[in-house]
Amino acid sequence: ERPFRSRRQTSRNTIFAFSLTGTAAFLLLGLAGYFNNGFEGRVSQEIRALLNAKDGKNPQRTNCLSSEKRFIKPEASCTFGDNRNVIAAVTGDSTGHALIDQLGEKLKAKNSGVSEMTYSGCPSTLGVYRFDLKDDHRCAEYNANVFHYLRDSSTHQYVILASRWTLYLEQDRYDNTEGGAEEGGPVFLDVVDRDIKIENPNPIRRKRVQAQYIKTVKEYVNANKKVILLYPIPEAGWDVPRYLARLRMGNPGNTEDLTTSHQAFIARNKATYDVLDSIGEHANLVRIKPETILCNSFVKGRCVAQLNGVPLYSDDNHLSSAGARLIVEEIIRHFDNN
To answer: Quick check: pTM over 0.70?
Structure first.
């Protein structure tokens, strides 16, 4: 520090020259990183593939997933697969959005297509709203529009209801109690009664939300749609691609499965299962439980978040393409031969 304070030892021109050289060096390093894709060679191809899984969500997210900033009317919704023969719709929040690519691919092979009618942070439930969000989050309006459109549609024979039912019911984000906790605050969902948004005490709120879950499924069934009701997808808690990348960087030979407790899943989702189970049986209602695919199957007593180093999630709760493929394989079995 002292030489720079002394004008006798260091001139102003010398200090300026050093500063200019240092700035130029950092600038050149930044440009080199930019033009070399962040120096991709500094990490292995395996690590890059894991980190790229975070980008594995639907590339049309901003175009096809409704939100506060983009309210997409049902008739303008995106179509995946063969748009000349659209037979199904996925409605719900970003849980359904994460399935749409793989479902579109499967239906395309059957010369059929599917519409995406999803809204971020909004379950496929009639008459509910998010009272933790502003009025421009138009959940109740969106779900009403979708229901009326699908009810009157002669082409959409199948309706797939996919949402984070448990999150909206329990409010708290997921903590797997093993070091993985989802970021973000609580979620508050309540009912709209005669166009008035109600904010009930939690015990009453829970009962009313549960009643709306039941009502929505029955409304679609009574509209003569074949309803495919997707039960809760196990939450991971960890940002799975990043977690796996850190594991591989710390121990490249590590092949240990990244898993969560099946018992923890059962405990968190008990109330949701109880309410969805209470709807009863109907010829037009199909239940799909991702738990039976991901939990106590590949690893006893555990729910898997990756298989053979491939992430089944693109973050801490949304399925990646690989994860969605496992669920879609089960969904597609319930489509008639179209």
So the answer is: yes
